[in-house]
Amino acid sequence: MSKLRQNPMSKLSAHHTTCNSKKQIKYGVIEAPELVGKSWDTQDINWYPGHMLKAKKELAKQLKRVDVVLEIRDARIPVSSVNHDFEELLLQKKRILLFNKTGLADAEITRKWEAYFKKRDTPFLFVDALIKRNLQKVLPLSRKLMQEKWSNFRKRGIRHPSLKLLIIGVPNVGKSSLINRLSKRKAAETGPNPGVTKHQDWIKLGKDVELLDTPGILMPKIENRETGLRLTITGAIKDSVVGTSQLSDYLLGVLQLKAPLQIQQHYQLTPEDLDLLPGNLLKKIAEKRGCLKSGGTIDNSRAESLVLRDFRAGELGRLSFDHPDNAESD
Predict the structure, then answer these.
(1) Pick from 139, 190, 218, 318: CA 20 to 30 A from residue 129's CA?
(2) Rounded to two decimals, what is the model's pTM?
């Protein structure tokens, strides 16, 4: 298996996080294809709190008022971040797929995904709310989808109504950050953990555009464990549902295969360290970063959280879990 090509845009931070560092994370990150985790004999990963069921029911009621649906997915997991319940709900609604957090995804794999989705019927954009990539195209594309309907209004001498958008997606894909960029103000609460948005709100994006913000909604049952792990590491599911031990073990295994040079440099490891099993590699990282209990024993919990935190802060490189070569053909 080939190693991840180093991306010049992904620069390692000069400041290394230690177990005592307190660092604000703007949003979660992750990446790397079909690896590890499939042999674990553990229960399925599912997280479907009551507010999601309530939100799904309210969403169905609001759909008739909506012109265009903006479905937000994570650019690092374009398939794993699909909620298949949306397909049934949306039916023939006009829809745009927005793949957010492209600044954290592997650029080469993103280009392959762009080629993949160009062959599909649904309009799409790869965007990034943090660096404002392609955000200026969202509203023009939404209006373009409405031109045929609006032309019928004009033929009858009637001014078309305001454009009504709906934004949906699984938790923590950056819906609120995207809304704040589009509205040019803090119209929605943001945070690094899933479940910040708990209710639905109409937000004005301009004199003729309104957008309905909705809570992140997961599917009631996640199809397989690999999808659940990817969703958790990218922030759609709370870490406590899976546990930081399994998450860090999976993540380090992925990084050893996909970005060995980056973790070696970031944690000042030796080439021999990279050949260790993930659990033993974690111990080496713990020693390097001072994740120790009194008496000098390894504090696994702190080390696990450190690795996850570094990865989600983008300090371990740009990675993509899902690959178009593995996507199901229509």
Answers:
(1) 218
(2) 0.81
